[in-house]
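As promised in the previous annual report, we have extended the structural survey to additional targets. Below is the entry for DUF1440 domain-containing protein.
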Amino acid sequence: MSTHRPARLIDRVSLAVGRGLLSGLAGTAAMTVSSTVEMKINDRGASATPAQAVTEVTGVRPADDTAQQKLNTLAHWGYGTVWGLGRGALDLAGQRGPLASLLHLVAVLGSEQVIMPALGLGSPTPRYGASAAATDAWHHLVYAAATGVAYDALAAR
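The corresponding structure token record, generated without further manual editing, is:
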């Protein structure tokens, strides 16, 4: 006789949320490293788009450059961490592994291409040229891959 009982829905959802947030944090850390290295190689400054998006959505306007940088960092880490919930939702829908990571990448990158222009924060990345589109896609691939590896490792425990 088995003592194992099926997980209740609330337990499955709670685990997916926790794993999603932790894996989104890990993915954001990986993307931050990737973009920091790329910015140094290409001698370019950090994007202010995360802070600009917060300003557009909430009306919060940083008082100075220091406040804008803090808001930018908070928005970047918050956005990436919360997007980990998408990975948890894929798990609840029965998807893990590379396919789930690919679906997550499509969702994250695709939403960026729609949301930012809708907020008046530029055009879809391909309009800035192949190099900008490839760089943007690379950073999001790093994010989705790291998020996926972290999620699947947590789910395997």
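The first helix runs from residue 9 to 42. Residues 125 and 136 are 7 Å apart (CA to CA). These points will be discussed at the next consortium meeting with the crystallography subgroup.
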